[in-house]
Design goal:
about 0% strand; globular; single chain; about 90 residues
């Protein structure tokens, strides 16, 4: 999730991406994403195993910001909101 192109980034794990993004977009979850206005789904990965997804989350959270931006731009160079693609 991001608040704008090259802006603040939020990374998390969920078993229901569409529902979770809806919560973030509508400010239903207090915390970092609400405080910084991270309402745009600009990148996501699907995993079959929740533990694998959590390991990947922790790995990416340790990355330098530039690496995270490269990951987003490789799949979504225009930083389009991908929320509609979930349906």
């Amino acid at each position: 999730m991001a608040n704008k192109r090259n802006g603040t980034l939020y990374l998390g794990v969920t078993s229901d991406l569409a529902a979770r993004v809806h919560q973030h977009r509508n400010g239903l979850i207090d915390g970092f994403s609400k405080q910084y206005g991270c309402t745009l789904l600009v990148w996501f990965e699907a995993h079959d195993d929740l533990q694998e997804a959590r390991r990947r989350e922790l790995q990416i959270k340790k990355w330098k910001r530039d690496w995270k931006l490269e990951l987003i731009e490789a799949e979504n160079p225009q930083w389009k909101d991908l929320y509609a693609t979930l349906f």
